[in-house]
Design goal:
The complex is a heterodimer of chains A (256) and B (375). With 256 residues, chain A is α/β, with parallel strands linked by helices. Helices cover 42% and strands 15% of the residues of chain A. Chain B is built from 15 helices and eleven strands. In chain B, strand 7, helix 12 and strand 8 form a beta-alpha-beta unit. The chains are: A alpha/beta (256), B alpha/beta (375).
C-alpha cells in the first residue's frame, strides 16, 4: 500500500486530470487506470460559482482528489490557494507546485521549500513537485512533507527517467514515499520507476494526449503493477558477463 | 521616465543585427526536413520552415505542429473576449479605423458603461477579459486605468490590457492593480515601412514601441503578447524579427510567459488595402512554423479570420482564441450600432464556439487562476 500521512492507496498510479478533450473522457480514463488519487488544478476552478465541472466526474469515479497549485507564481500564492482548496474540496491533501519558468515548467526549489514549511504548519498533507535534487528532497522531508515528487524529466516531455542517477539517490535516502512525477511518457517508463524503487508515479500528458486515453490508462495500470511485482519478486539484476555454471559455485560447494 | 538605462533593450540588439544570411539563404527541402527533426529549432530552422521550399512540405509542418500542440497543451483551448474602453486615438496610422483623422464618433466609456459591458461579456460565459483602447495618453492614461481597472478586476479570472506603450513604473502599478497580461504588437519591425504607416503621434517612435516588452519584463508583468500585422511589409522578415525578439525576451525575462498573434490586415473604415498580400496557405505555414519554433507559447487567432479557417487551425496549433468579439467601445451593450475598429469575420457566439471546440474534441477553458485564489 502507498501510505501518505494516514491515507492508504492500493494503486501506485496517480493521474492528472488536465489536457483531456472532455470531462467524460477524463473520467473514463481515471476509472480504467484504477488510480485512487487524481490531481485537480486549482487554477481551473471558479470558487465563487461552485462551477465544479471537473470535480463532479472525479467524485463519480470515486477517487481521492489531490488539488494542485499549478499556476501559483510564488509561495504566498500557493499557500493562499491551498487554504481555499481545503475549504472548497474538503481535503488536507495538497500537491504543491510552483513553477515560475513558463518554458520548461521547472519547479522553483526555494519557493517550494518555503511554501512546504508553511503548509505543513497549517496542517496540510503536502506532496511537493520538485527538482530531482537529493538534498532538496531531504529538506522537504525534514519540513514534514508526506512524500516527495521529483521529476523524471521535463513535465509533458514524455522523455522518461532522464534523471535516473539522481532519482536512485533520492529513493535510497528518502524515508517518505518517492512519487516520480513528470516526464513519464511510456508505460515502460512507469514500470521502470517502480522497479527502481519509486513508491508511485504520476502520469497525465502521456494518457490525456494518447489517441486512445482509456486504453493508455489501462496500459499504465498494468505497467505500474508489473514494476511493483518485479521489485517484490527481486528479479535477477543484469550482469556484465555471462554466468553459466560458475566455477566459483563449484569451488564453494567443494569447500562446504 | 526612470527605466534603468543600464538594461539592455531590444532596440539596441536589433540595431546591430543584420541577419542577412538568414534572409538570403535559398533554403531547400533538405533544410526544411532538417528543421523538422530539430528538438530545439533555431532561427535558421524557422526561416527554412517559412521558405518557399517548405510549401511543398506543408503537410509535414502541420503534423509536427499538431503533435507539439498536443504534447504541450493537450486539448485545452483558452477563450477570451476584448472589451474596447475607448476609441480615442492620438496617432495617425494609415491602416487603422480609429486613426486620429478618421471621422468616427469618439467615445470613452465611463465606469458605469464599462461595468455594463463587462457584465454583458460575463453573461456570454467569458472569464478572461482583454481591455483595449486607442492610444490617448491624456484622456485614457494612467488616471483612467487607476480608476477603472479595480472595478473590473473582481469580475474576471484574467485581465489583459492592450493600450499605448507605457513606462516601467506604470507597468509596475498596473500589475498591482491586477493586470496579468499586456499585449503590444509591433505591427512591423522594418523601420522604413514602420515610418510609412505611422504618420503622427507617439506611435511614430519606433524604439519606444520596440522596447515596450523589455519594460514589461522589467516590471514583472506575467505574460506578454507579441505580434505583427501581416500585410504591411515583407512577412518573412517580420516573422524573423518577431522570433528573434521572442528568443531575446525569453532569455532576458525567464519568468515571463508569451503569446503570439499573427493578424492579417482587415478592411476598416477609411483604411488602406494591404501592401503585401499574405495568402491563407502562407498564414497557415507561418502559424505552423511558429508552433514548431516555440512549442510552449500561446498562439492566438483573431475573429478577423473566417470561421472555416479557424476551425481547421484550432485543433492543430491555436491555443487561445477570442469569441463573440465586438471591436468598438460599447459594442456589447451600451452602443452596439457604433463603428468598429475592424470588421470581424467569425461572428459565432462564445457558446457556439465552445460547442464547436467540443465537436473538434477540444476542451474550452474559460478560467485561469480565479481572483478568489488570491493574486
Amino acid at each position: 500500500m502507498l501510505q501518505l500521512a494516514g491515507h492508504s492507496f492500493s494503486s501506485r498510479l496517480l493521474l492528472g486530470s488536465g489536457k483531456f478533450a472532455s470531462p467524460e473522457l477524463m473520467q473514463a480514463a481515471v476509472t480504467e487506470s484504477g488510480s485512487q488519487l487524481v490531481t485537480l488544478a486549482l487554477k481551473r476552478l471558479k470558487p465563487g460559482e461552485k462551477s465544479l465541472d471537473l470535480v463532479a466526474p472525479l467524485q463519480q469515479a470515486g477517487v481521492q482528489l489531490l488539488p494542485n497549485t499549478s499556476g501559483a507564481a510564488n509561495a504566498r500564492e500557493a499557500v493562499f490557494a491551498a487554504e481555499l482548496a481545503r475549504e472548497l474540496l474538503q481535503t488536507n491533501l495538497l500537491k504543491l507546485e510552483i513553477h515560475p519558468d513558463p518554458r520548461y515548467l521547472m519547479p522553483d526549489p526555494e519557493a517550494t521549500l518555503q511554501a512546504a514549511r508553511q503548509l505543513v504548519k497549517l496542517g496540510f498533507v503536502v506532496l511537493p513537485y520538485c527538482s530531482p535534487d537529493p538534498v532538496l528532497c531531504l529538506r522537504l522531508q525534514e519540513a514534514g512533507c508526506a512524500a516527495v515528487m521529483p521529476l523524471g524529466s521535463a513535465i509533458g516531455s514524455n522523455q522518461g527517467l532522464q534523471n535516473r542517477a539522481m532519482l536512485e539517490i533520492i529513493i535510497e535516502q528518502a524515508k517518505v514515499p518517492v512519487i516520480v512525477d513528470a516526464g513519464i511518457g511510456q508505460p515502460s517508463h512507469a514500470c521502470d520507476a517502480l522497479e527502481m524503487g519509486a513508491s508511485a508515479v504520476l502520469v497525465n500528458t502521456a494518457i490525456a494526449t494518447a489517441a486512445d486515453p482509456v486504453r493508455a490508462a489501462y496500459a499504465f495500470k498494468l505497467a505500474v503493477a508489473a514494476g511493483l511485482a518485479a521489485r517484490q519478486a527481486r528479479c535477477a539484476t543484469p550482469l556484465r558477463q555471462a554466468s553459466a555454471t560458475s566455477p566459483v559455485d563449484a569451488l564453494m560447494a567443494y569447500l562446504r | 521616465m526612470n527605466q534603468a538605462s543600464s538594461h539592455l533593450t531590444f532596440s539596441s540588439v536589433l540595431a546591430n543585427l543584420a541577419q542577412t544570411d538568414l534572409l538570403l539563404t535559398p533554403y531547400t527541402a533538405a533544410d526544411v526536413r532538417r528543421a523538422l527533426q530539430q528538438s530545439q529549432p533555431g532561427l535558421h530552422d524557422l526561416m527554412a520552415l517559412l521558405s518557399p521550399a517548405a510549401t511543398e512540405l506543408l503537410p509535414e509542418l502541420l503534423h509536427k505542429a499538431s503533435q507539439l500542440t498536443r504534447q504541450h497543451f493537450g486539448a485545452a483551448r483558452q477563450l477570451f473576449a476584448p472589451l474596447y474602453m475607448s476609441n480615442l486615438c492620438a496617432n495617425e496610422c494609415t491602416y487603422c479605423g480609429f486613426s486620429m483623422s478618421q471621422a468616427v464618433k469618439r467615445r470613452v466609456l465611463n465606469s458605469a458603461e464599462l461595468l455594463q459591458e463587462a457584465q454583458a461579456v460575463k453573461a456570454m460565459g467569458h472569464d478572461q477579459l482583454l481591455l483595449v483602447a486607442g492610444e490617448h495618453e491624456r484622456k485614457v492614461g494612467m488616471a483612467y486605468f487607476r480608476q477603472q481597472i479595480p472595478l473590473l478586476r473582481p469580475l474576471f479570472s484574467r485581465l489583459m490590457l492592450e493600450v499605448q506603450p507605457l513606462a516601467t513604473d506604470e507597468y509596475r502599478e498596473l500589475k498591482q492593480l491586477g493586470i496579468d497580461t499586456v499585449l503590444v504588437y509591433q505591427e512591423t519591425y522594418q523601420p522604413t515601412a514602420y515610418q510609412q504607416y505611422h504618420l503622427k503621434g507617439k506611435k511614430t517612435d519606433l524604439s519606444w514601441r520596440l522596447d515596450t516588452p523589455d519594460r514589461l519584463g522589467q516590471a514583472g508583468i506575467d505574460k506578454i503578447g507579441l505580434g505583427i500585422l501581416l500585410g504591411l511589409a515583407d512577412w518573412r522578415t517580420d516573422a524573423l524579427r518577431l522570433a528573434t525578439h521572442l528568443r531575446y525576451l525569453q532569455q532576458q525575462y525567464w519568468h515571463c510567459q508569451f503569446s503570439l498573434a499573427l493578424p492579417r490586415l482587415r478592411p476598416c473604415s477609411g483604411g488602406i488595402t494591404p501592401a503585401i498580400e499574405i495568402s491563407e496557405q502562407q498564414l497557415v505555414q507561418l502559424y505552423a512554423a511558429f508552433r514548431i519554433f516555440a512549442p510552449e507559447v500561446d498562439l492566438t487567432l483573431s475573429t478577423r479570420e473566417p470561421a472555416q479557417l479557424r476551425d481547421l487551425l484550432l485543433p492543430l496549433m491555436i491555443t487561445s482564441l477570442s469569441a463573440g468579439s465586438k471591436t468598438q467601445p460599447g459594442g456589447y451593450q451600451v452602443a452596439p450600432q457604433s463603428l468598429e475598429q475592424f470588421s470581424i469575420d467569425d461572428d459565432r457566439s462564445p457558446a457556439q464556439m465552445a460547442l464547436q471546440l467540443q465537436k473538434l474534441a477540444l476542451q474550452p477553458v474559460w478560467t485561469n487562476w480565479h481572483p478568489a485564489l488570491g493574486r
